[in-house]
Amino acid sequence: SSLLPSLLAGAETAQFGWLMVVERRSEGTMNSSNVFSGEGGGPVQAGVGIFFQQEGDGSVVVKTIVSGGSSEREGSVRVGDQILSVDEHKVVGEPLSVLRGLILGPQGSFVKLTFQRKDMGEAHTFDVRLMRGSAEYLQGLTSSKTIEDEIDQLRLQLRQALSHCSQDRDELDRLRKMLQTERDQSQMRERELELLQQENARELSQLNENLRNAEGGRREAETQLHPLQQREADLAEELNRQKEKERLRKEYIEELKKRHEEEKGRLEGLFLKEQAGRREDQVARLGGESQLSRIQAELSRLRTLEQGRREREEEYKDRMQQEMARLQDAVRTQDVVRTAVKEVEVKMARYTGEYLQYTQQLVPPEETLDDDNLFLA
User: Fold this and answer.
1) Conformational region of residue 298, where left means phi above 0, alpha means psi within -120 to 50, and beta covers everything else
2) Among candidate residues 9, 99, 89, the one with its CA nearest the CA of residue 54
3) How many CB atoms lie within 10 A of CB 112?
4) Residue 357 and residue 360: Cα distance in Å, rounded?
5) Which of 19-28, 81-90, 114-123, 265-274 has the highest mean pLDDT?
6) Is 321 in a helix, a strand, or coil?
7) What are phi and psi of 63, to 5 degrees?
8) I need a surface site. Which of 66, 117, 254, 306 has the fewest CB within 10 A?
9) What is the DSSP string of 203-267?
């Protein structure tokens, strides 16, 4: 956008400068300060007769060599040469105002310019020492041409300047067409972006609804799972109590067996002793049988208790298996809910990344160009 006014300003400045030269020469004057600085009075300032143009990368190249100027008379400088320094002062990347201030100086003084030229793919640098001065001033130093010849030469230069102005106008029209095309494309992209945003908004709303449903299912599953976990803890505690009771029963049975063995040994000893006498043997045998009957009754009672314990243990195992199956079903339900939540999160991240990438691709890069990219030195 900044290139269009700079081209118009450069064309008008060039045309105005050449018309001033024709008027001054027709009057028989050589006030070159008016040609280059646009100011009257003071010391005469002049350049070396070169149009410079600043490229988009900041480099400054020779656009046109003024006929009759110091540069044309010296013959080393060509159109397209890039200027690197003025009197050992580097000007690469500097604004044109700095380059203008370095080149312009008192008429008749010398300035050293360093250029770079690319020839056959190779770049080489060279220095040129030029005298500052207008074409009139330099012409007066070498020969005294007639005013008519100078006017003819200036008219030729004026036609060249007007030709440059026509080329600049054509370039301006082309740039205007390009700008209109870019605007149309930008509007089309904005409409596409708006449609895409609407579609993404609908998809995002649907995904949020699915996420809320999945979250509700997860909470319901957790609510159903909590009582099962509590029930599992209660059954585990009950199983530990039953195991402790079973351990005590086993210890009691072992103690009874031990007593039974002791009692059996004692009875056998008594039986041997009672063999010495029938009476004592009869009494001891009756006592032993009575004791044995009590022990057998106790053993029968213990076997009944053991059978009941085993039946209750089998019942507890069946109940535990049923509760474990219900708990596994609840865990599988929770895993399904978590998988659905993860899939929804992955889709949301993918859609968000695609939306941001498409938005960045639609932003046109800004063009930054210097408005004052053409001047006469």
Assistant:
1) alpha
2) 99
3) 13
4) 5
5) 81-90
6) helix
7) -90, -50
8) 254
9) HHHHHHHHHHHHHHHHHHHHHHHHHHHHHHHHHHHHHHHHHHHHHHHHHHHHHHHHHHHHHHHHH
**Cβ–Cβ < 8 Å for 86, 113:** yes
Instruction: State the maximum Cα–Cα separation within the chain, in Å, rounded to a whole number.
Output: 181
Which pair of structure tokens corresponds to residue 213?
A: 């449903």
Q: Phi, psi at residue 189, to the nearest 5°? A: -65, -35
User: Three-state SS for 93?
Assistant: coil
| pLDDT (tens digit per residue) in 116-149 | 998 887 889 999 999 998 888 888 776 655 566 6
Structure tokens belonging to residue 364: 């046109």
Alpha-carbon Rg for the chain in angstroms: 56
- CA torsion, ordered 334, 337, 343, 345, to nearest 10 deg: -100
Judge whether residue 113 has pLDDT over 90: yes
Burial readout 1-27 (b: 16 or more C-beta within 10 A, e: otherwise): eebeebbeebbeebbebbeebeebbee
* Residue 10: both structure tokens together: 């450069």
Inter-axis angle of helices 3-26 and 147-274, nearest 10? 160
Contacts of 110 (CB under 8 A, 6+ apart): 129, 130, 131, 132
Separation CA 238–CA 258 (nearest Å): 30
pLDDT for 145 equals 52
What SS3 class is residue 327? helix
The secondary structure of 258-307 as a DSSP string is: HHHHHHHHHHHHHHHHHTT-HHHHHHHHHHHHHHHHHHHHHHHHHHHHHH
- What's the CA gap between 68 and 152, in Å, rounded? 13
User: Residue 131: beta bridge partners?
Assistant: 110
- What CA–CA distance (Å, rounded) separates 30 from 282? 169
Cα(132)–Cα(70) distance, rounded to whole angstroms? 7
